[in-house]
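hey m, so remember when u said the tokens were messed up on ur end? i reran from scratch. heres the input so u can diff it against urs
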Amino acid sequence: MSWKDNETRCKSRKPGFRTRCKKKAPAGEQFCEHHRLDLPSFAKDPASCVSEMAKRFPKNHHPACDRKGENDCDCQDFSNGAHSMMALRMAFKQSQLLMPVYNEHISVTMREKVRRIRRYYKKVPEEDLYLPPFSTFRQFRFFCWDHNSQQIVAKVLKDRVRTKRGLKGHLKRLAPLDVYYTTAQWLNPEGIGPDPNGKMARYKFKKKRWCSEKSGKITLPRYHNTLMKRDLYFDVDYDNKDYNEGIKMVKEVIDSMKGLTSFKEYEWPQLTDDDFEIVFSGGKGFHVIVNGFYDRVIANGIPFTEYVNHREKNKSVEGFYKDLVNEVKKNDKLLLDWMVTYDNRRIIRLPGTVHRKTLRVCTRLEGVEDERIGGDFYSYNADIPIP
């Protein structure tokens, strides 16, 4: 009998997604060493649980820190007491996932959300939906609840979305909990995925069967990695306690970009209020978008090719936006997810679609004069959740 079929497999699952860990658990245990953080384990050996949390989350990162995954930044370390509380919270969460009553609660809750979301997409007018510019060169990802496997599954839309009518058809059929689109435009949007030059590229492409069966060589790497252009996106979603903090941060972003008059030795395109598109994510965050920014930068004579020593457009575009981020970050009031701005493979929530956690609609605002924004961006009044 394979270890995958017996009870020695770790029972840890990602909340909501229910994906089980593939590692083995020691005899008589339910979890592997990495996930042995449930309440019985905490009561038996709290020191090892606290030590495990210290390994995973050593730093109390600043909201604007972009080194969270590496932990090689100068952010302050968490105290031992903080790690103890984190381990205790994790113990309750880990044990909760094994309770049949909790699993049934998740199932009923998700079914109700899907029902409300499907009803909304059936009734919403097409004009209330949104398509980003050059939508046929974007990848759309739908996160849907699978009733059979009782988990959230990510579905890449294998279709070029050309019209709002076509988009609505997909929304009614799938009733997704979340909908995202790529910030960049790609030659083959349905086929983009892992970076062919990344660390795990060969493994990921093999999993997608985009490798030669004999040699294991990645097939058509440029076909899966041909970037056309990407505009300017800011994700204002870090450390916002409420909508009011988020909309104040939006104002800081817009003022910073409007105040940027030069970039290195190049003439910088002067931005006005009309150039910025403000989107309420449906949660607590906002997005600030400047569509057409890529073309305006090129028109001003800023060459992307100087950012890399070889003809790799993806790296040159990313290098340009990294330099831009470093310039904007001089305003230390800005707390943003900067990777959305410079990472070519980032996705962002599609306006007109429902946010899974709040059941509020991701909404485009009518610019800086939108009636939902208080005087001079000091407050924001969110719409109610869908019925």
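this time it looks ok to me. The chain has two domains: 3-96, 116-187+226-377. if urs says something different then somethings off w ur setup not the seq
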